[in-house]
Amino acid sequence: MNPPEWLSEFPFLQAQWSEIIALSDIYPSVEHLDLSLDWDKFSLTYRQSNITIDWFAKLRQFRKSRLAYLAYHDLFQPLNQHLKVMNKVSDLADLLIQKAHQQAAADMLAKHGRVIDVNGVCVDLMIWALGKLGTRELNYSSDVDLVLLYSQDGMSDGKRSLDASSYFTRLGQKIIKLLDYFTQDGQVYRVDMRLRPFGSAGPLACSVAALQQYLQYEGREWERFAWMRARMVSGQSAIADEVKNKIKSFIYRKHLDYTVFNALAKIKTEIADHLGYADDDLKQGVGGIRAVEFIVQSLQLVFAGRNTLLQGTEISQQIQQLVNANKLSETDGIRLRLAWLWLRKLENISQLVADQPTHKISDNPVVKQVICDSFNCGNWDELQAIIDSHRGEVDGLFNQLFADADNALQLTVQQKVKLHQLTQDVCNKPLPRKRQENIEQLLHNSLQLAPQSVLEDFLVLIKNILTRPNYILMLLKEKNVHQSVLNLMGKHSYFVSVLQSYPVLLE
Fold first, then answer.
1. How far is CA 468 from CA 141, 173, 465, 471, 503, in A?
2. How far is CA 293 from CA 55, 236, 396, 503, in A?
3. pLDDT confidence of 374, banded at 50, 70, 90?
């Protein structure tokens, strides 16, 4: 296979050209590449060529050669195949993180033994990926957002015993060094740990219980977006679903909560402030990749509490799920996914030039011509017009979404003011302090469970049972009864009338 004329303008591919040729002889197409089997073959060859194993070199050489192979073959594939390549690039990252984990764990085992909990069960480290690796849509040259978790506290059973926190912190440091440390072979991945609890100020590794407590009491709205994309990439796969289920209540709310609209309004402001100086940025600019991600994730945040099919991580898949759930029109879904694929492939080709995390298209005319050829466009002006069209459609959807959010926020504020006035009418009557507190709590709970019209009717019912503290307590303590009453009142005016007139029916 002769090198293409433009190869010198893509120094990353040029440096790996001999590897691309060799791998292409073994794997004629991307579909033929089984990364796990390929790692075994690579490891065998590496052992035959080296007296000792340098894990820093081994990990980096495998990453560069396989990434270059994938990227080169993706250049002139149909656009609809790009998602499969991003999945494969993510699988490559998973594999390398797992190998770094295994090597670092073997070193810790030799020095400190295994961590054992109070029940005598071995405790292992779990590595969770957020961001694009979490969605299996990793860029060619991207950092990886990781969070390190362990299931239980305990002590290691080696001669130099460590508690779980110290043990897994040291293990995490070894893994990060294997991946992030810059050598003559470069890096495997830039590792970003800032999404862990309390960010850079928090411990490097934390227990699942500590994470759950942090999210419950300290978690911020933007962290709901971050953890929507969480996926375990290495560790105890048997408990991955258990961990995800423990944090789902933080991410998704069963009922529409008012903080969603406040969060969306804030995000809109932050994005709008940033767009002014990033027009040519494929990720941050107007109608860019981040706008697509926020459209999808915002709709998930609002609706996925009740529709579990909308709780997936992958952006492309969730666009279709939102269409299926009638949260996006079929036309908007097609436009959004096509624009996203265009932008992602443009971004990846730009990063392919020198294996750098850029989000801007190169000004190099040779690179631009390769991009045109990749998209089957005759010239750059034609390609630029298509890019501008896609970004314009994304921006239109983005503005429409947040206009809807603004309207909902205004309606929410109006509702809260009106409900506050109605609540005052109920609770201003002379009542024992405890009963008044119970009523206030009951009304607060109701705000999360029913629309405005039902709440107004429900308040009339509350007025009618002010002197029946047992009924108040029943609705407060028996959440299923409370929800059933609200559901009935929302179904037909008959139930509203009969419950308000005959509260004894609550029994």
1. 66, 61, 5, 6, 9
2. 36, 29, 14, 48
3. very high
Render pLDDT for 355-371 as a digit per residue (tens, 0 to 9).
Answer: 999 999 999 999 999 99
- pLDDT for 438 beyond 50: yes
Cα angle vertex 406, ends 405, 407, to 5°? 90
Question: How is residue 331 written in tokens?
Answer: 């036309």
For 233, the 3-state DSSP assignment is strand
CA 447 – CA 459 distance, rounded (Å): 11
pLDDT at 415 over 70: no
- Give me the pLDDT at residue 277, please: 47
Q: Which residues, including other chains, have CB under 8 Å from residue 505's CB and lie 6 or more apart?
A: 498, 499
C-alpha 295 chain-centroid distance: 13
pLDDT bracket for residue 408 (50, 70, 90): low
What is the pTM assigned to this prediction? Answer: 0.81
Alpha carbon distances (Å) from 463 to 15, 86, 183, 421, 425:
78, 59, 73, 14, 9
Tracing tokens 């929302």 back to the chain, one arrives at 490
Q: How far is CA 416 from CA 48, 173, 286, in A?
A: 72, 48, 34
| CB-CB contact of 450 with 419 (8 Å) | no
Burial class of residue 456 (count of CB atoms within 10 Å of its CB; 0-12, 13-18, 19+): middle
Please measure the distance between the N-terminal and C-terminal CA atoms of the chain and give it in whole angstroms.
Answer: 82
Phi and psi angles of residue 206, each rounded to the nearest 5 degrees, phi first: -140, 160
Which regions of 296-450 does DSSP assign to beta strands (E)?
none
- The DSSP secondary-structure symbol of 301 reads H
Given a cut of 70, whether residue 79 has pLDDT beyond it is yes
Q: What is the mean pLDDT of residues 17-44?
A: 96
Tokens of 39: 């790692």
Average pLDDT, the chain: 89
Of 457, 468, 467, 459, nearest to 491 (Cα)? Answer: 457
Q: How many CB atoms lie within 10 A of CB 495?
A: 16
Angle between helices 289-303 and 259-275 (to 10 degrees): 180
Give the separation between CA 165 and CA 51, rounded to whole angstroms.
36
| Residue 311 CB neighbours (<10 A) | 17
